[in-house]
């Protein structure tokens, strides 16, 4: 992405760009930055095409047109499918693009063996933008907070990312809410995050499992009823409970072998914050209890699916049993 950023900064453009990969937020961001840098407010020399039913002859005619009182003519093509099949005609044309024409392709899925992919690679620059690491996202988010005069600790940044997820579009909205909420504060606190951010289901399950681990039955059931009130299906909640018992079981086993939080996170394939939560929670359970909880969660699911048990009653019975003080 450095090449792309430098081209935008220096206004030194190649004849073709392809933005591809899974991270939609960054693709949209770079698409808009390229359009603004190349065309500004000029719409006369900007062609926009989207979808699979594009007239390639029309695109080529537009590309051949000399820009009107401008340095470049920009042609933006999104989700065309041409990088999977059917791009032969345009790929051939890419060999003779006028120096005054720039193509910008934005695709989610591409075949690197396709003629279009090879044509763009030869004529310009391909930027594959995939999901960012938790560390990269934390750095990006910290810059947004800093730009708006806010600070956040590393621990609270990890908590924020674990709470709302690593989807950068969702996270950016939650950051905006936090900045507005903490208007008269310099430092974003955990309480601020809890007050305004919409937590992912897995984080809500963490809260419920926290209550189970300390045998707080009232809080356990309150968490469950809140999820039900918010239209979360009982079977989905049950699946997440089962998953959490499984994660705690793994965390207890790995930490018993002397692994630290980062090693546990890497081995389990989860975020560091999640690994830390699992390690803390599993301390309140024996290995036998975790195995029993996992087995009973799976059995409850089986009984519900076979019609032998009501889903609400099944989940409630499971929660009552494991949050009950002995």
UniProtKB/TrEMBL annotation:
Q: Where is the DNA polymerase III delta N-terminal domain?
A: 17-124
Which superkingdom does the taxonomy of this entry point to?
Bacteria
InterPro entries given for it? DNA_pol3_clamp-load_cplx_C (IPR008921), DNA_pol3_delta-like_C (IPR048466), DNA_pol3_delta_N (IPR010372), DNA_polIII_delta (IPR005790), P-loop_NTPase (IPR027417)
Q: Does the keyword Transmembrane apply?
A: no
Swiss-Prot/TrEMBL keywords: DNA replication, DNA-directed DNA polymerase, Nucleotidyltransferase, Transferase
Q: Which GO terms describe its cellular component?
A: DNA polymerase III complex
Q: What is its EC number?
A: 2.7.7.7
> Among its keywords, does the record have rRNA processing?
no
Q: Which reaction does it catalyse?
A: DNA(n) + a 2'-deoxyribonucleoside 5'-triphosphate = DNA(n+1) + diphosphate
Q: Which GO terms describe its biological process?
A: DNA-templated DNA replication
Q: Which residues form the DNA polymerase III delta subunit-like C-terminal domain?
A: 204-322
GO MF terms listed in the record are: DNA binding; DNA-directed DNA polymerase activity
Per the record, the similarity remark reads: Belongs to the DNA polymerase HolA subunit family.
Its recorded name reads DNA polymerase III subunit delta
| Record organism | Eubacterium ventriosum
